[in-house]
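Project outcomes to date are best conveyed with an example. Our students and postdoctoral researchers have been running inverse folding experiments weekly, and each run begins with a structure described purely in tokens. The record below, which covers 140 residues, was selected by the lab manager from last quarter's runs and is presented without edits.
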């Protein structure tokens, strides 16, 4: 049924549950799985270009480590996991990657790292479910 799945991964408990679900589904369906991490909080203004580069390097290292952990969990489960790291708004980037990559299922955790603002603006999971070009599984 599912051949190409995208799992949004930010290291939160919800994302870990979504990753686990994607690995189980991959085994059941023989599907390809890609984990996507989105760098959301790069500085918009800084005193120097060095500050921006320093923040970007830190974010790259942080998200790179998260994706390596996800890849290790997939290997333990016997599933090959591709990884992507993109900068941008989380929901918009997830939807864009799903569209461009021709994914037929997106998995997201019910809650992630978005915090208090989610109560006012809606969670990433809600936004993705409204705008994704394919089925969305919100994992609790």
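After processing, the design step wrote out the following sequence:
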């Amino acid at each position: 049924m599912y051949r190409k799945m995208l799992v949004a991964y930010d290291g939160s408990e919800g994302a870990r549950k979504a990753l686990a679900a994607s690995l189980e589904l991959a085994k059941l369906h023989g599907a390809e799985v890609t984990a996507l991490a989105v760098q959301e909080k790069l500085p918009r203004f800084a005193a120097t270009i060095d500050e921006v580069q320093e923040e970007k390097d830190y974010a790259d290292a942080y998200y790179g480590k998260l994706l390596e952990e996800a890849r290790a969990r997939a290997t333990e489960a016997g599933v090959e996991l591709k990884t992507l790291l993109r900068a941008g708004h989380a929901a918009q980037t997830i939807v864009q990657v799903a569209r461009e990559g021709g994914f037929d299922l997106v998995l997201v955790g019910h809650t992630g790292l978005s915090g208090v603002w989610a109560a006012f603006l809606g969670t990433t999971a809600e936004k993705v479910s409204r705008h994704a070009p394919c089925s969305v599984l919100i994992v609790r």
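Helices lie at 13-29, 49-77, 90-101, 117-121, 124-131. Strands lie at 4-8, 32-39, 81-87, 105-109, 135-139. The training component of this project remains on track.
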